[in-house]
Amino acid sequence: MRYAERPLLVYWELTRACELACRHCRAEAVSRRHPRELSTAAGYALLEQLAGFGPPLPHLVLTGGDPLKRPDLFDLISRARSLGFSVAITPSGTYALTQRVVARLKDAGVSILALSLDGSTAARHDALRGVPGSFDWTVQAARWARSLGLPLQINSLVCAETRDDLPALLDLVGELGAQRWSLFFLVPIGRGRLLREVEPDEAERIMAWLYQVTPTVPFAIKTTEAPFYRRVVAQRRAHERRSGGTPPDLASVRQGHGVRDGNGILFISHVGDIYPAGFLPLKLGNVTTSDPVEVYRRHPLLVSLRDPDRFKGKCGRCEFRFVCGGSRARAWSATGDPLESDPLCPYQPSLPASTVQPPVPGDATLPA
Predict the structure, then answer these.
(1) DSSP state letter for 183
(2) Predicted structure pTM score
(3) Can you give the pLDDT at residue 191?
(4) What is the pLDDT at residue 363?
(5) CA 121, CA 172: separation in Å to the nearest integer?
(6) What secondary structure letter does DSSP report for 346?
(7) Around Cβ 318, how many Cβ atoms within 10 Å?
(8) What are the structural domains, with CATH classification, of the chain?
(9) What is the C-alpha to C-alpha distance for residues 278 and 257, in angstroms, rounded to an integer?
């Protein structure tokens, strides 16, 4: 994929309606659908527009809110599949996620079901999701997906409140038979402003832990809004080669090479607004008046976000800027400028730029 031409992932927020009240919700979801949500006809038109990216088409991720709140959900999936899109979906863990619904998603050709688990127990997860029972509904849906052969991704929040639960979550993800575990490092926007991010040194230790546990589990591990995991991987692999060892083959990290907000990612809101990413809500246009293909390829902000040499501060001089590039959403949240440095990354770029720093200390057990 050439990310200047087409994104790897297009996220379409079908609705902001949701029965949950998550403490970290980017969308600040509410229980009812917005009256200006894209209609079914407008949704079909959007899919036709997105098909204009041409092959290979981006992966389409239907998100929310809760996509199950859209009565035309399966019609939209059918139209997307007929146009050649692979479709993933991120439903909320509620009573609506029944065995019948999971089976319908499988029959509709959904490529992966992504469910959120932010705690390894009901008490932990439900406290963040705001509704008792969400943990049980989510775990049951994951088991139904596994029994049906529907590929499963588990998404988990990483923040100060969840950090010590990550090893137990790792075990639960394996028990549920997921193909991928995606760890979302909190960006303080929306209701997420009420939670605390991990400190940069804590984030670095988590990355070191992920590197060590990845070869030991049967599923891929990726990070969201923390692309400096790629820098940690590159440092550790280089160190192991210099030491005469054979570094593990971490294919999942290579697949994310260079992808970040606005570079390989495009986000469409429930009312059709176009953003570089869901966590970077800088409006670039609206699909009712602008072609998202042209916006993605030519908008000045996206052109800038795809050029790490334009980044400011240490991100702009970092030797890993083309592999990583930092979270543009977190830079914007912290400074108001999406080209500034990602404050979560503690790495200080070396001089000259070609120098690779030794890996940070760490072991396979997260310190308390």
Answers:
(1) E
(2) 0.91
(3) 64
(4) 40
(5) 9
(6) -
(7) 25
(8) 9-335 (3.20.20.70)
(9) 19
